[in-house]
Amino acid sequence: MDKTKELYISDTEEKAQKALDTVDAFINHQGLTGKRAIHLRLLAEETIGMVKAMTGDYQALFWMEHEDGEYRVKLLAKTKMNLEKKEELLSVATSKKNAAAKGFMGKIGDIIENGLLNFDEVMSLQQEYGGGAADFTMCGMGAPGELPPMGDPLIWSLSNYKDALDEADDEEDDVKEANDELEKSIVASLAKDVIVGVKKDSVDMTIIWS
């Protein structure tokens, strides 16, 4: 397996640029040119841009890898937050719900941020703020209205999300909006799949491209 070195990235321009420099070196090393080079770099740019837009107390480890003709953009976000910090971040997430739609990668960023809150505690905190669990938690991008059983591991994938939308009512406003976001999204258009998983205090994201 070929892979780049792992870099910690955050909302700073300096770290974002270092990550992009690593991406360019990796693409050159792989001998990718033309549209293939552009497409892989776009996926990396979208990931780095998403991290820059995120809030909260976390570290995000970024790298890229290649194996058996498949390329993966990898992100591992970890956090150690006490209850007070989690309440503060959830409050921010609540207020952001009324903001303009941030698009597909913005929602992936929300999945990662809220997954880092620790799912069990998020479910309890939501009772204080009101609103449905699907508003703030990772499952907000699952099948409409569907919540996983309490304490179950959370895994979200673009392929399953698309399947859920295909089975949903195309006339529903939220379904129309979701399909529109996918059509406009660079990542949703280029990626073979996007997988996000949560385990305790870490969330990992893999964008698969070939």
In short:
With 210 residues, the chain is an alpha+beta fold.
The CATH architecture assignment turns out to be 2-Layer Sandwich
Low-confidence stretches: 97-101, 125-150
Helix/strand/pairing class, anyone?
alpha+beta
- How many structural units, i.e. domains? 1
CATH-assigned fold name: Heat Shock Protein 90
End-to-end C-alpha gap: 15 Å
Q: Helical proportion?
A: 40-55%
Averaged pLDDT: 77
SSE arrangement, N to C: EEHHEEHHHHEHHHEE
CATH superfamily: Histidine kinase-like ATPase, C-terminal domain
Q: What is the CATH class name?
A: Alpha Beta
How would you describe the shape? globular
Largest sheet: 7 strands, antiparallel
Radius of gyration: 17 Å
Q: Would you kindly provide a written description of the structure presented here, covering whatever features stand out?
A:
The protein has 210 residues and is an alpha+beta fold. The protein has a single domain (1-210), classed as Heat Shock Protein 90, CATH 3.30.565.10. Helix content is 51%, strand content 20%. It contains nine helices and seven strands. Strands 1, 2, 3, 4, 5, 6 and 7 form a seven-stranded antiparallel β-sheet that branches. Strand 6 and strand 7 form a beta hairpin. Helix 1 packs antiparallel against helix 2 and helix 2 packs across helix 4 (103-115). The longest helix is centred in the first third of the chain and has 20 residues, at 34-53. It is globular, with a radius of gyration of 17 Å. Mean pLDDT is 77; it is low at 97-101 and 125-150.
